[in-house]
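Changelog-adjacent note: as of this version, every example in the card shows the full chain rather than a window. The one below runs 175 residues end to end.
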Amino acid sequence: MKKEDCFYLGKIVKKYSFKGELILRLDTDEPEIYENLNAVFIDMGKTLVPYFIENSLIQKGNHIRIRFEDIDTEEEAEYLLKRDVYLPLDLLPELKGNQFYFHEVEGFVIEDVSYGKIGIIDSINDASAQLLFVVKNDNEEILIPIVDDFIKKIDRKNKKILISTPEGLIDMNRS
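Full-length structure tokens:
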């Protein structure tokens, strides 16, 4: 399985018991969706390795206690600590309305109700305090804050996002 065919589910953050159980911190608002998984892919550096789940139990917040098949000791569990965990993209719950996954909107045309077509979404910058659409237009890069109130419509069929930004925002964020 290739990482680009998967989505980030979370990180193994600590050992739970001396019998090899681990705690997986999920990167989701709905951890209950992932309680009964059969398997996950764990990032082992250059490759994702499948690990089959013997049992799992939701813990406080967005944590799940997991016991993997063939991981029976604290030492075996130690090897998986701090590793990122992934699932295939086809297991992502479908979002509706103006909700979207970051990877889903890359390549979408972004258009402002007043400004017109701005460009194509190249990526999402989630490294700054404010999430940003990184939009390419010819040889230019435009950064647009991802604000729920700005997003008017996501047209998945036509791969287009309609936004309404304050006057001057687009010009101000040109590189």
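Structural remarks: Residues 74-78 form the longest helix (5 residues).
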